[in-house]
Amino acid sequence: MTTDALSAAQPAGDDIRDLPFEEALSQLEGIVRSLEGGRSTLAQAIAEYERGTALRRHCEAKLAEAEAKVQAVVEGAGGLALRDVE
């Protein structure tokens, strides 16, 4: 297993919440490559899968946030404006 895969295989936890989308996606891609390579032990593969699942959820939430912000752009009298999303 590569160093990237080892760091990506850390237990899913609070650290994921603070990851920017791009970093979370990069870690998820590393996990997928590692799992597809099939060189991990069963325990490592399970840990990677669990972290990958948490990263996938995080990425989906970040994408939903971005989509909501894009949908919040409205045409106003003065041009484009943002409306509150929260």
From TrEMBL:
Q: Which reaction does it catalyse?
A: Exonucleolytic cleavage in either 5'- to 3'- or 3'- to 5'-direction to yield nucleoside 5'-phosphates
Which top-level group of life is the source organism from? Bacteria
Q: Which GO terms describe its molecular function?
A: exodeoxyribonuclease VII activity
Its EC number(s)? 3.1.11.6
Q: What is its main location?
A: cytoplasm
Q: According to the UniProt record, what class of enzyme is this?
A: hydrolase
Q: Which Pfam families match?
A: Exonuc_VII_S
| Gene3D superfamilies named among the record's database cross-references | Exonuclease VII, small subunit
Q: Does the keyword Phosphoprotein apply?
A: no
User: Where is this chain's protein located in or outside the cell?
Assistant: Cytoplasm
- Keyword terms of this UniProt record: Cytoplasm, Exonuclease, Hydrolase, Nuclease
Check the record and name the InterPro entries matching this protein: Exonuc_VII_S, Exonuc_VII_ssu_sf
Q: Does the keyword Transmembrane helix apply?
A: no
Q: What is known about its subunit structure?
A: Heterooligomer composed of large and small subunits.
HAMAP family of this UniProt entry?
A: Exonuc_7_S
NCBIfam families from the UniProt entry: PRK00977.1-3, xseB
Q: What family does the database annotate?
A: Belongs to the XseB family.
What functional role does this protein have? Bidirectionally degrades single-stranded DNA into large acid-insoluble oligonucleotides, which are then degraded further into small acid-soluble oligonucleotides.
Protein name, UniProt field: Exodeoxyribonuclease 7 small subunit
Organism equals Roseococcus pinisoli
